From TrEMBL:
Keywords: Amino-acid transport, ATP-binding, Cell membrane, Membrane, Nucleotide-binding, Transport
Chief location: membrane
UniProt keyword Cell membrane present: yes
Domain of life: Bacteria
GO CC list: plasma membrane
Molecular function per GO: ABC-type amino acid transporter activity; ATP binding; ATP hydrolysis activity
Domain ABC transporter: 2-236
Entry-linked Gene3D superfamilies: P-loop containing nucleotide triphosphate hydrolases
Compartments, as annotated in UniProt: Cell membrane
Protein name: Amino acid ABC transporter ATP-binding protein (PAAT family)
Membrane-topology descriptor: Peripheral membrane protein
Similarity comment: Belongs to the ABC transporter superfamily.
Source organism of this protein record: Brockia lithotrophica
């Protein structure tokens, strides 16, 4: 579903992605971990062409993402993204936030979009908050609306960049719970997170990055029990 083939990227002189090779099959949940500044966000953002690359290739479902001939808008419709900061429209209700893209971008009928939005809100446990404005919701609830909004586009892939990092600790669980359910349904997911319990329980594979390199890729049971690489061991010692 997602392929990185010898991908390199620079920000000026800074080599932020170094010869990245990674294959993510459909339905897989990959959790990316690593120190701050190691290139996790940049890697994620190359998947939907929010960042360009300098060499190599990224493919999504066989489509070469950075090929000038590729229709980036069509590609992005298939890829949901959730960030640390929820960026909901403050002047729109939860329901309206969710309905916006399906009606505007997919041309979905308003009633149909609202029915779907309500179903998705139900799924993330917020059916009763459909008509609340973001300012009336907790951080955890806002992030669940942001996930619902991404899901309303019926994406093939969901990307999460530290979705719980900005939340008060008591709200982290409810967001991770929604992500766990999504994983259980077979969604292809790439998740950058510091939530190691989530990585341990939900990831099919953990990718450890450091200084722009993928240093280790392993199933979570192996990665957390006995990482092969010294840099990964040091990282785990620091955070666990
Ligand atoms: P992570 O998500 O692992 O913390 P990032 O992918 O955000 O790391 O950043 C990787 C490196 O690239 C860091 O050194 C960061 O400072 C740098 N960087 C990120 N975005 C830009 C940018 N737009 N311009 C220049 N440097 C950047
Ligand atoms: Mg980041």
């Amino acid at each position: 579903m997602i392929e990185f083939i010898r991908v390199n990227k620079f920000f000026g002189k800074l080599h932020v992605l170094k010869n990245i090779n990674l294959f993510i099959p459909r339905g897989e949940v990959v959790v990316i971990v690593g120190p701050s500044g190691s290139g996790k966000s940049t890697l994620l953002r190359t998947i939907n062409a929010l960042e360009r690359i300098d060499s190599g290739e990224v493919r999504v479902d066989g489509v070469s993402v950075h090929d000038p001939k590729t229709d980036v808008r069509a590609l992005r419709k298939q890829i949901g993204m959730v960030f640390q900061h929820f960026n909901l429209y403050p002047h729109l209700t939860a329901l309206e936030n969710i309905v916006l893209a399906p009606t505007k971008v997919l041309g979905m009928d308003r009633k149909e979009a609202e029915d779907m939005a309500l179903q998705i809100l139900e799924k993330v446990g917020l059916r009763e908050k459909a008509h609340a404005y973001p300012g009336q919701l907790s951080g955890g609830q806002q992030q669940r609306v942001a996930i619902a909004r991404a899901l309303a586009m019926r994406p093939k892939i969901m990307l999460f960049d530290e979705p719980t990092s900005a939340l008060d600790p008591e709200m982290v669980g409810e967001v991770l719970e929604v992500m766990r359910e999504l994983a259980a349904e077979g969604m292809t997911m790439v998740v950058v997170t510091h939530e190691m319990d989530f990585a341990h329980d939900v990831a099919h594979r953990v990718v450890f990055m450091d200084h722009g390199e993928i240093v280790e890729v392993a199933p979570p049971e192996e990665f957390f029990r006995e990482p092969r690489e010294e840099r990964a061991r040091q990282f785990l010692r620091r955070i666990l």
